[in-house]
Amino acid sequence: MKIIQTRKIWSVEQIPDREQTRIEFPHLIRFKGSWYCAFREGRIHMNHPSGRCRVIRSSDGERWESVALFDWDGGDVRETRLSVTAENRLMANTSIFFVSSEPREIGYSSKGAPYESYYQLDKNGTPEDDLECNVARQSMSWLSADGSHWGDAHACHTGINNWRWDVIWYNGMGYSIGYAGKDREGTLYRTRDGKNWRVLTRGFFPEGRGNEASLVFGGDGTAWCLLRGGPSPAMIGIGEPPYYQHWKWRHTTIALDEKDRPYVASKDFFSGDLGGPKMILLQDGSLLGAGRANGRVTLFRIDPEKAILTKCLELDGTSYPGLVEHEQDVWVTYGVGAASEIHLARVRREM
Question: Rounded to two decimals, what is the model's pTM?
């Protein structure tokens, strides 16, 4: 794979109502002939009252305009993921973290320093408790028929105290894996309309451990999952149709070179977990994945049966990637620098 073109598509200078902000976690999709990119704007990386989502649009990938801004009084609209529903509507889904008006230090980073200005609601209940006083977050979705006009936010009972992350649509249904809160051991959800979700499988994560996850479905209905974390930094799961109750999990191995392929265990390759994993099914039937790895955005070819991730390209990005195949090229969005810019790369696949 080789980079054909990269360009900056948005920056903090294009946000006139804020003196201090970050832009990060971009996601990408094509809808009715246009590109759409969603990303979070917030004063700090962690949960904060300023957290909101902006959606921008372009017909050619060069000139972009803002078409939506989702915010919530008293809540941080975390990284938003885009998908196209079975009814051909553009959907933006997120988990809103309800925040306190006052900062407090309640935890420490991996380097031992306290999180700065971390805004956290006091709550006394267990993660399973959905009493109003104990709700810390809520999964939400917005829908649009044209990408310009958006309806009100939709929330259902199953989205209380969890985070339904990436959404994939297959055979008229939307699927998403919830984590955090009551779903800390992972839950697979399904929806018909993007508004109301029901549980398919609880205890989804291997050994009850996992984080963000991306799903893809094959032509025979087999489901593949690229999972951040778990017993190793990145894992591959294979689910059996039609109800996806049974999953086989494997630790990934990394091939550092597409030719000689010196294999290493993922735990020896990743300095942390594979952040913001995204996986897509290419037109030739192969799988391509991407994520934040070792401080950069890395693309991998994926062999799900052998659980091998073959490293094929690195981009100088620092935030979770969006990934779309279009006209035989792969388009990737990613954050650059100190969360100050969003870039779009066009990558040529070797045929």
Answer: 0.92
